[in-house]
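dude i think i finally got it to work??
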Amino acid sequence: MSLILVTPLSQIETAIRRYKPTHMVTLLSPEHMIETPDGVDATRHLRLGLNDVAELLVSDDPPNEKHIKELIAFGRSWDGKTPMLVHCWAGVSRSWAAAFILMCDKRGPGMEREIANALRYRAPHAHPNPLMVRIADKILDRGGRMTSAAQSIGRGTIVAEGQIVEFPLSPDEL
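look at this
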């Protein structure tokens, strides 16, 4: 099945068992980074150590251009024929920014608003990290469309933790 699974850290074992993803993205603070879980090939596990902050000066480890370039390159190495698991601590901000970025890159320019709306529909709690989205918008040369689309869906329902959410790649399933 062609999809991105977004989940909090607490649900990765369940997601791996249920969906058998071939690729995995971990977005955690450097001091909380995990090893590759059983069921995922370590060569297909991207581990990005970054804090969940919206501004560069707020943290020692904010999202930066290097992180986002690594995420995009990793996404481009995935053929989309098998599930990819994307997670952060709570499954609310960093993971949803990464999923949004990966989807915008896979689907191409002009789809940003449709992807953001689909994200909101599937995950009422999602609040994509705005700094990650701004950096990706610049790298992917989207002229502010990614940033605007992410802002247009608002903050989302406030929750302590998200749940496993399926985000299909196919435009027909969005």
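The mean pLDDT is 95.
im so relieved honestly
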